[in-house]
């Protein structure tokens, strides 16, 4: 008998489909015994709302079919042994009582350890269960489709189940959001939340503080197509992502101080709006009045806040942004407040479903992309070209999705143009490059809203 948490998330897999059967057979070959259960966590595509979750604002993602799947056997030895179906990822083992996460080398097993450690610390497990685990992933790595967070979520659910504990999905999402920061990425919680809270057939508006997921029914007549630029970007392996988080944090501090707020306690741009009690449009006006478009030096920031460089580094900046000398605050704040407004407008259009809904949604996606490219500077030449190609061949709206600097685009395409669109984009982007051509089959696909994390047991 399973705990109540799993009441709606257990599938009878007595007649295992091919992928599960292969995973089971490989597990037996690897560990000499059969897995006791399986856990699945999906990747996601963010339709709109880029780089604003860590600023406290709502985002609008949906889960996708691609996922992380782990076969698990709890064992009596206090050792966790990790293996991967993909031979490119090396085996790893460690004591469950001595979890060490290497921030300098974000290897695959470290993401598993994040989820493991998060659950252990939440429950204060002094005698955690050891495990044999075999992983199979179908989310393209470093593609902006949340392969890393799906692995953290999967590992958290694995650890929860193996140790006989229960949590709500919201609690699990919040724990996994915090635990992924062990690897050094200052993420905001969108990826983990949709991985647990997703439901088949609907996108979700994910709000924070408190965490809440609301159904968003996408309009009929269009498909959402994901296209991989084939440029990999690992958030934890570079400082690009954390620099943006720090720029938003610094903009929060300067805006707060200019308005007489307690800037030392303010961390997110959403907090400034909440404290002032003004609209997003009014926040954009305040940004224009308070911040200048020229980059801020660390010296100027320290002068504005009345603190030393040492205080800036030790109290505000993250570990991998200590040596950054200039920050763009005006541009980042403008993107965040305008993008937050676009998310709410996207939801409103989906709910009201006017006759020109597709056109309106496409315009919002295009505006989001321009802001990501111009104000947040998180695109790259390959993404720019891919967006142009998608728009050229019939997409109503197209934008980068995920952190950016590589990874994927998401495009909204009329269903009657879908086959022609896929054919033309393949020809224009993938078949002109040998490296992309090799990845073509897994790089371009239409997707529908999928379901969230699951535990499977055999009958």
TrEMBL record:
* Coiled-coil annotated residue ranges, if any: none
Annotated GO biological process: galactose metabolic process
Keyword tRNA-binding set for record = no
GHMP kinase N-terminal domain: residues covered:
110-197
InterPro entries xrefs: Galactokinase, Galactokinase_CS, GalKase_N, GHMP_kinase_C_dom, GHMP_kinase_C_sf, GHMP_kinase_N_dom, GHMP_knse_ATP-bd_CS, Mevalonate/galactokinase
Q: Name one GO molecular function term.
A: N-acetylgalactosamine kinase activity
Q: Which protein, by its recorded name, is this?
A: N-acetylgalactosamine kinase
Instruction: Please name the source species.
Output: Balearica regulorum gibbericeps
């Amino acid at each position: 008998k399973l705990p109540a948490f799993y009441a709606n998330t257990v599938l009878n897999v007595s007649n295992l489909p091919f992928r599960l059967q292969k995973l089971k057979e490989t597990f037996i070959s690897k560990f000499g015994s059969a897995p006791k259960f399986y856990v699945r966590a999906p990747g996601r595509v963010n339709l709109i709302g880029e780089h604003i979750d860590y600023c406290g604002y709502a985002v609008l993602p949906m889960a996708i079919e691609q996922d992380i799947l782990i076969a698990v056997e709890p064992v009596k030895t206090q050792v966790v042994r990790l293996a991967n179906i993909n031979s490119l990822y090396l085996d790893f083992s460690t004591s469950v009582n001595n979890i060490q996460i290497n921030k300098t080398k974000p290897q695959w097993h470290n993401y598993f350890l994040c989820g493991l450690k998060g659950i252990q610390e939440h429950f204060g497990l002094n005698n955690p269960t050891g495990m044999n685990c075999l992983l199979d992933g179908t989310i393209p790595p470093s593609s902006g489709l949340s392969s890393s967070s799906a692995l953290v979520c999967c590992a958290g659910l694995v650890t929860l189940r193996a140790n006989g504990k229960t949590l709500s999905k919201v609690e699990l999402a919040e724990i996994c959001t915090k635990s992924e920061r062990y690897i050094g990425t200052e993420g905001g919680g969108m990826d983990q939340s949709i991985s647990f809270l997703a439901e088949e057939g609907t996108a979700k508006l994910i709000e924070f503080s408190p965490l809440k997921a609301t159904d968003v029914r996408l309009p009929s007549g269009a498909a959402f197509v994901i296209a991989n630029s084939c440029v990999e970007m690992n958030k934890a392996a570079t400082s690009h992502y954390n620099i943006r988080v720090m720029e938003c944090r610094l903009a929060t501090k300067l805006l707060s101080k200019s308005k007489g707020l307690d800037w030392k306690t303010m961390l997110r741009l959403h907090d400034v709006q909440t404290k002032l009690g003004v609209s997003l449009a009014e926040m954009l006006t305040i940004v224009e009045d308070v911040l200048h478009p020229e980059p801020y030096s660390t010296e100027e920031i320290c002068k504005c806040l009345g603190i030393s460089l040492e205080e800036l580094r030790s109290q505000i900046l993250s570990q991998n942004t200590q040596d950054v000398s200039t920050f763009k605050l005006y541009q980042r704040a403008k993107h965040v407040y305008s993008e937050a407004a676009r998310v709410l407008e996207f939801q409103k259009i989906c709910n009201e479903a006017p006759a020109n809904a597709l056109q309106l949604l496409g315009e919002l996606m295009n505006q989001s992309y321009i802001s990501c490219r111009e104000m947040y500077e998180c695109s790259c030449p390959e993404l720019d070209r891919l967006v142009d190609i998608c728009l050229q061949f019939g997409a109503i709206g197209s934008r980068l999705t995920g952190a950016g600097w590589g990874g994927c685009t998401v495009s909204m395409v009329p269903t009657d143009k879908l086959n022609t669109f896929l054919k033309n984009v393949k020809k224009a982007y993938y078949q002109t490059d040998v490296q992309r051509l090799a990845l073509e089959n897994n790089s371009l696909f239409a997707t529908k809203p999928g379901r969230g994390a699951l535990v499977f047991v055999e009958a």
